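Aggregate trends can hide what the representation actually does to any particular protein. This step matters because it turns folding into a mapping between discrete strings. For completeness, the protein is quoted in full, as a sequence line and a line of structure tokens:
=====
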Amino acid sequence: MIKRYTEDQQKIPMETLEKVYPDIKENIQLIQKPGEDNPVFTPQDNKAWLLAKIWVRNSDFNYHELVSHLLRTHLMAEIFFIASYDMADQHPLSRILRATGRYTLPINITARNTLINKGGFFEEYTAIGNEQWEVLKKATEKITYESLCLPDNVKQRGIDKLKNFHYRDDGMDIWDAIYKFVRGVVNRCYKDDEDIQKDPELQEMVMFIYNYGFLQKSDCPSSLKTREEAIKYITMIMFTCSAQHAAVNHGQYDIYAWMPNGPTTMRKPPPKNKEVTEKDIMDTLPDITTTLEAMKVASFLSQVPNDFVPLGEYPEEVAYESHMRDPLMEFKSTLMGIGEKIRKRSACQEFPYEYLDPAGMENSITI
């Protein structure tokens, strides 16, 4: 969504505009460059406003699926998992990190063969067309370490004060729970910061991710110098592969089964004026074949695997290791409390937000 006032509006004091146009802060301009054939749409524009919002949702769909979902969870998780696999089985962190990659490689291979391949879903049924790799390349260049760390991301985006923002609130609860769990494990395995610096397998994993995931960006870690740095880094990996993926994955069918709420593509160009009819809207929305294909993909990606393993569940031989046992018991208890709080809130909501209920997310990206 692009917020921009017309040149005439920019000359008028905002307080005057707000009296004349009470919804002036809600506006959409669909193309960056101002012009007579690129109007600013507002809620007073009736069906033109509706069509403008549908265009925004079309952009949101493509960005969400290709960048927020595929790139920033699936593909980053693949890098994390491959990087961790060089750790020895006896390494105290290896089995925690490997659990974050269960089934991720197979599902990513499926995506490469059916969604982002030549003739696949994105090329045939979305506005991205055959530019998906170019979009992924540009988006990868913009990934930062802090953008994957929820507390930093919240501050950077200025969304820390928004009311009723359940993704932020539930996500922060889960981030804090993971952080506390990882801290308990790390502090039992490493007696001081020097131990972290002298762990070649952990440092090699971070360097691999720095090279192939963060593309050697200067603001991304290439090594870990303290226990606190290691705790935050491992928390970032676990959060990305569990809660962040759940947030962008679990609601796909709920959101996109109603095509106007997230059209994959549009059959006509953006409106050049505000004379929009219902027929214009219907002629712009995708056809029935594209709609059914999108619903099928959204339904498939919202499925839960038969051998679902919830966040915080590990095999007995891992769970009962000395450095794992107490932190893991506390972690499970905290996650249970978060779930209870979410379900209690849901009882008072017409449309409950439950995508970050820990009972419904896995340690890893499996779908």
Remarks:
- Residues 104 and 365 are 5 Å apart (CA to CA).
- Confidence is low (pLDDT under 50) at residues 1-14.
- The chain has two domains: 1-45, 46-360.
- Residues 46-360 form a domain with the Lipoxygenase-1; domain 5 fold (CATH 1.20.245.10).
